[in-house]
Write a structure and sequence with these properties.
13% strand; alpha/beta; Peroxisomal_Beta-Oxidation; globular; 41% helix; 304 residues; 10 helices; 8 strands; Rossmann fold
Length: 304
């Protein structure tokens, strides 16, 4: 394999298992030194007594690469600052941040608690901000760097019982675009990826009804390691013009997602009244209204 990332240093959050593990290993194969961040926790946030990050570091070292463990929480500002400091202290620089850490607290909206909402937003959205913000001065000083943030079709399209997760993941898209705009002059790029993968996190999806069971069986075909090559490509210097975009990776398929833009307009020279909106504007727009799709309603074909 060509060493596309030779001499670069990457920080991957939530890298002990699943998609994050695959990304950390693939970055190392491409020549990057890697900070493997993982709490070593169960899905409800409690310690599981395991050392997944250490195991990934051992795998990287077995490949002849260099890596260190970081056990900090992305939801904690100081811990995020420490991650970046450890990367620079160990390897002298930081070139890549992959915001992958995540949790689920799936609950139908009218039963969702404040804590369930706050916990998910704290990890996915605030965590992505914390780590990205910690790396920003380093990237600015180096006049270069790459952010890769994990979004989800739960936010881009929609899913049942995931108001907290969907809100956070769509927020990640806005964060990524804002970073791309604000840091472009420093040679910094920022993109978002919606990964399709069967991991420990989505193993908590209910599978009680025949419909749910069918969905879960389809998800089990999605290999988390398939996301990693695209991440490496995005981080390579050859992708220097790619920024502010939203992608998807689903086994051997790669998607470029649309971003919100006006698709219809209605104008009233005299100004709108509520009655005129109801009689004219909304009927004009009706044919272009989006249905209440879920992710599974859009991605209906079998993964390849």
């Amino acid at each position: 394999m060509s060493k596309l990332l030779e001499g670069k240093v990457a920080l991957v959050t939530g890298a002990g298992r699943g998609v994050g593990r695959g990304i950390a290993l693939e970055l190392a194969r491409a020549g990057a030194c890697v900070v493997v961040n993982d709490l070593g926790a169960t899905l409800d946030g409690k310690s599981d007594g395991g050392q997944p990050a250490q195991e990934v570091v051992a795998e990287i070292e077995a490949l002849g690469g260099r890596a260190i463990v970081n056990g900090g929480s992305v939801a904690d500002w100081d811990a995020a600052q420490a991650m970046v400091a450890e990367a620079v202290g160990a390897f002298g620089r930081l070139d890549i941040v992959v915001n992958n850490a995540g949790i689920l607290r799936d609950t139908i909206f009218h039963r969702m608690t404040e804590q369930e909402f706050d916990d998910v937003v704290a990890v996915h959205l605030k965590g992505s901000f914390n780590v990205s913000r910690a790396a920003a001065p380093v990237f600015k000083e180096q006049n270069g760097g790459v952010y890769v943030h994990m979004t989800s079709t739960s936010g881009l399209v929609g899913n049942f019982g995931q108001a907290n997760y969907s809100a956070a993941k769509l927020g990640v898209v806005g964060l990524s675009k804002s970073i791309a705009l604000d840091m472009q002059k420093f040679g910094v790029r920022s993109n978002a990826i919606a990964p399709f993968a069967w991991t420990r996190m989505i193993d908590s999806i209910p599978s009680e009804t025949p419909e749910q069971q069918k969905r879960v069986e389809g998800l089990k075909k999605l290999v988390p390691e398939k996301v990693a090559p695209f991440v490496v490509a995005l981080c390579a210097d050859a992708a220097h013009e790619v920024t502010g975009q939203v992608f998807g990776v689903r086994n051997n398929e790669i998607y470029l997602f649309s971003q919100p833009r006006p698709i219809r307009t209605a104008h009233c020279g005299e100004g709108w009244t509520p009655e005129a909106v109801l009689e004219t504007a909304l009927p004009m727009f009706k044919a272009d209204f989006y249905p209440l799709d879920r992710s599974a309603d859009v991605f209906t074909w079998e993964p390849v």
